[in-house]
Amino acid sequence: MLEVRRFLQARKWMKSNESFLKTWHAHVGYKLNLFRLFESGEKVHTIAKTYDWDEELLESWVDVGLSVGHLKKNITGRIKAKKKMVRFATVDSDESAGILLREMMELHIPTLLEYPDLIQRKDKRVYQDQAFGEVVAETSALLEKAALPAVMKLVTKSKPGSALDLGCGYGGYLAKIHHQFKGMKLTGVEKNRDVFNYARQRLPDDIQLLNQDLTAFLNNQNDSVDLVMVHNLLYYFPKDKRGALLKNISELTTPGGKISIITPIHHSQYGGMFTSAFNAFMTAHANLYPLPTIDELKELATISGLTMLSAEPIIKEGGWFIIIFTKN
User: Fold this and answer.
1) Which of 94, 149, 271, 326 has the most CB within a 10 Å radius?
2) In sequence order, what E strands does 221-319 have?
3) Sign of torsion, CA 77 83 88 91?
4) What class, spelled out in words, does domain 137-327 have in CATH?
């Protein structure tokens, strides 16, 4: 009976890896643009020869793709990518979500696999912003699509004359606000140089962009602002520094002004598996920090002279919330 139970448990674990194989296959396809190369139907040998790639490994990738349903083979032996993979897992597709695969497979999964060593060594990794800043900015841009309706609703309702986006990334929120609300004074602050440069190229000139460290910016900012966006940012600050951060933000917010925070909420009623895994990733780094809880945010509001108006989920399966504060 013991051996049967062991076998059944092993079988369950093997079965659960099927979804990982699909993610791995899609990631490799996205990284090498393979779904685009096989879009019209092609022989593996031809692709391998054209790009001087290892044909045996490419054949193995194709074999997995046929098994998981990402690829199909016609009667002539040519391999063709499924349309959905071309749409969602090619770099040059407007509908591509492949950057999320990169963040998961190149940043999150390797960190979680290091957990045994990190626990035993009492050690932590160091997150390399210059190496992964653009990847994180692109995945944040994906999140914007889910958060944008709530953000635009806030802007429409509160009618701010000025807005500040701290850690603005590629500036998606600023671009949308600029397009819909003419004449508003808009400012974005972004620390990563490459991300800042890309944002500067794509945003209108009348949106002010600053390539600065956030803390330095807040310490030297004198102009008040009606709306401050603090999106995907809190976990870059230790828990004991978040009070000072929110106080500084509150001080530059006009009375009655609004502050929006977007973050996964730990131990909320949504996104249990995702938020626990995301929190495990964060706490494995010396320069990334635990996700906030709703009680922590309420306490931060109290000590910062703010009132929490709402906390609404924007991606329930991921535990992502938008929390709105007003300055007292």
Assistant:
1) 271
2) 225-231, 253-264, 306-315
3) positive
4) alpha beta
Provide the residue type at 81 as one letter: A
Pairing of strands 320-327, 253-264: antiparallel
**What is the dihedral sign for C-alpha 103, 105, 109, 111?**
negative
Q: pLDDT digits over 253-293, tens only?
A: 999 999 999 999 999 999 989 999 999 999 999 999 999 99
Tokens of 155: 């802007």
Residue 313: other Cβ atoms inside 10 A: 18
Q: What is the pTM of this model?
A: 0.91
In tens, the pLDDT along 128-150 reads: 988 888 889 889 988 898 999 99
- DSSP bridge partners of 253: 225
At which residue do the structure tokens 């944002």 appear?
Answer: 199
Task: Name the phi and psi angles at 131, rounded to 5.
Answer: -80, -35
Which tokens go with 153?
């609703």
Domain ranges in the chain are 2-96, 137-327
The CATH code belonging to domain 2-96 is 1.10.10.10
